[in-house]
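Thanks for the sequence, V.! I ran Putative ribonuclease ZC3H12D right away. Repeating your input here for the record:
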Amino acid sequence: HQSKLDFFCKLGYGKQDICKVLESLGREALEDDVLKELIRMGSKPQALESQAQPSPLVLVARGSCSTTPGSKWLGEDESDSSDYLRPIVIDGSNVAMSHGNKEVFSCWGIQLAVDWFRERGHTYIKVFVPLWRKEPPRQDSPIADQHILEELEKQSILVYTPSRKVKGKRVVCYDDRYIVKVAYEKDGVIVSNDHYRDLQNENPEWKWFIEQRLLMYSFVSNRFMPPDDPLGRHGPTLSNFLSKKPVLPEPKWQPCPYGKKCTYGNKCKFYHPERPHQAQLSVADELRAKINVPLSLGKEEEKCNCSP
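Predicted structure:
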């Protein structure tokens, strides 16, 4: 603990911020995790703060990103999920029950999903769980690793949907509506195996959004695994699905099995590396293209001659 404190003090971070992060992550936390948490909190080395604040009299609240009055806290700004990764909204109840084989509310499953998106670089991650999951577990609703919910709540990742008791009966707000609404407003991705059919029928805009932005998943030996093709075989890849600016793959031609011995010429539909300028057109299309070019050129010459 002392060695990590001295290490980050040499980097220029404040002792209060370092102690706060070490208390939240624990003594066994890796240096990379501590550094990520310091950056997420908005803490900066003293050298960077002195460059950003030329005047020593200007006071800046600890954890803020800049000195401008309109600055927002990290975790709530739309741009903090980076310029190319979409915000993530996780259906906590669905993920926890799926990890617990629909018998136990396993909070460890939520942690696995959050860690998976953190490793990819997503910074805006929200998990929605009903408030009554804070209560002690009962026989009809067992909960495992309930302390994880408290840790995620301290990190401003977990959000409890409201609930209360009226005359001994629990009144629960519909948490699915929170999930879809926040994901729709943030233009993000919903992580759940639920199809939200009732909300699709309620709002046509939500219907399109749920169909195009729902990321399903599976747990394989305590490993969170979303599919590589979230929208089917002919849809985008997982990387493009989670990105705001998808990258289109370059067309890849299948090489010809005959190689240089191929006798099909331009009729061959396969790729020949020895013919870099080979047009991938059929013979009929190539002849049409050659015929249309001189006709169009002749018409342009006639127009030029007729013009005064």
